[in-house]
């Protein structure tokens, strides 16, 4: 394995924006966009917690960025760039680093972000990664997960539960003939770039599972949520993996990175316009009270063995 | 062990500035100081690489912040706040978290910084930590490690080599009757708050070892450096741990977090004025050529078995 400085020069310096100063300085220098507020978030990805040892390093890199980009999306922020930490045990070689940095490069282009800086270290344990993403919003326009009001509709983007079923498929517990569910688990689509300020009253990304993340919104707003399981949008591949267990996995499984939104009455059309080609679906309503209530097609309250997902 | 959300609420939410939104949102929102540029840096601390399993968690927390604060100091930046990642294996309990968060709280007060956000996870390996520090500078005033010019003096703050000897003491290989060296290893003093812009032409913090970090400055500027070992400032405790091996450890050992500065001729007094009570010492000069040349008291070139320090 090459030393830390050679590795940085070879794999990471080509990814750096001018803010990163060629990754040869002690820190990055960023001139914030004039008159904008900055939005900052950090997420880790750890071997055997967030990814499996044999996973493709390019997909690990891209998911690391996308999980954080999804947090920026939930705040209504425009992504700018990121800082990276990477800690690799001795057994991880140049091939892994080459794939990882190629994954970063690919998503940097797609999402128009640059590497600002980072820290590389050896690890005496497993692979440990983190990214700190920086974005910007108009002053006061950052969305919050805590702003829902009684009477707001509960909407979600895309389809829910694909990634959790995809994880089951990757573990050999579920058939995924099209590979769609697996792809949704390995490479989520962060919903960045939507003009949601003034349209929604609260937003969160579905990372821990629909029920649990909806619970966060309820707690933050001092409200309850009632949703109908039958309204939660399902992909064709997920529908094929049918059954009550699959339904619970879909509603409580993590890693969707869709947006869960509180939308005031009368704003549904504005929401659809803001989301363009991305489908959005109303699945329920916020009301007084506490907790998340999921109704089945008969209108009865469903019970789950666990509210959310705590990784592998 | 309590769950992730209870832990965040109990140990970390009290540390959050208003930018952190009580740590209940997807990201932090920061209004940058008007007209200032931001300086961003990230460093990891990993069990068995940067700290030992039995180390005091409060000191680990404080060193994590201070290593990053030292990077801000080397850029001439004023610290604002930080984001944190923390990954703990199952065996690490509430006592550790309580100590760790108390350490953060203590240094937040000392350095006037706040927690902006973070990510907490379980780990299937060892303890893994990182902090992303955010500071600010006047536009164009950020220092660089790459700006040295031929004829600039090479200056250092404080004393050099204490932390490397302190690590030897912690490993039982060296006597440290006063505990001074051990303390310098566990709790470095980042040299933040010095008005160095316009006084120095380049700056770096000594984290990898004096010789190696001086090598970074040389490479960045396309110059060589000549220093005299006998001029490198030594603490009384380090002087007591005498001998040629201790000298090499002092000059090549890491973790000092003193500043290494390129100072144009005639700026020595201005440097001393900017540093106030912090002693600064001229140890050599940048000149044409390449590489770092360390001369002993007889004026002969010293050879080292390793140029720098790559952690434990």
Automatic annotation (TrEMBL), chains A, B:
It catalyses: thiamine phosphate + ATP = thiamine diphosphate + ADP. Substrate binds at residues 50, 255, 309. Keywords: ATP-binding, Kinase, Magnesium, Metal-binding, Nucleotide-binding, Thiamine biosynthesis, Transferase. GO terms for molecular function: kinase activity. Mg(2+) 2 binds at residues 43, 71. Pfam families: AIRS, AIRS_C. Mg(2+) 4 binds at residues 26, 41, 71. Residues 149-291 form the PurM-like C-terminal domain. Pathway: Cofactor biosynthesis; thiamine diphosphate biosynthesis; thiamine diphosphate from thiamine phosphate: step 1/1. InterPro entries: PurM-like_C_dom, PurM-like_C_sf, PurM-like_N, PurM-like_N_sf, ThiL-like. Residues 25-137 form the PurM-like N-terminal domain. ATP binds at residues 118-119, 145, 207. Its EC number is 2.7.4.16. It is an enzyme of class 2 (transferase). Mg(2+) 3 binds at residues 26, 71, 205. Mg(2+) 5 binds at residue 208. Catalyzes the ATP-dependent phosphorylation of thiamine-monophosphate (TMP) to form thiamine-pyrophosphate (TPP), the active form of vitamin B1. Reaction mechanism of ThiL seems to utilize a direct, inline transfer of the gamma-phosphate of ATP to TMP rather than a phosphorylated enzyme intermediate. This is Thiamine-monophosphate kinase. It comes from Acidocella aquatica.
